[in-house]
Amino acid sequence: MAPMKRPAAWDRPNYYQGTWSLRETARRLAISEKELRALLIAGQLDFVQIAGQIRIPIEHVQRRLRGAELFSGQRGSVRPR
Fold this sequence. Notes:
By secondary structure, the chain is of the alpha+beta class. It has a single domain (14-72), classed as Arc Repressor Mutant, subunit A (Orthogonal Bundle). The protein is built from three helices and three strands. The chain has helices spanning 22-29, 33-41, 58-72, and strands spanning 19-20, 48-50, 53-57. A three-stranded antiparallel β-sheet has the order 1-3-2. The radius of gyration is 13 Å and the shape is globular.
């Protein structure tokens, strides 16, 4: 089941640059797409919907990974392709 739709904020077109698809985000977080959708529904990750496609801003994924590093002791960042 897809998360609830959010209207696009057309006054900030640069916001949509630097986003990943559900598949790419799930791959980078090493979780399933189903688990990723659960995070989106729970509001633990932000997303935008553009032309019917759910996109996740890369900076939000990086923030989530940095938060996880505080508990795991891992270092590194996710880089866009």
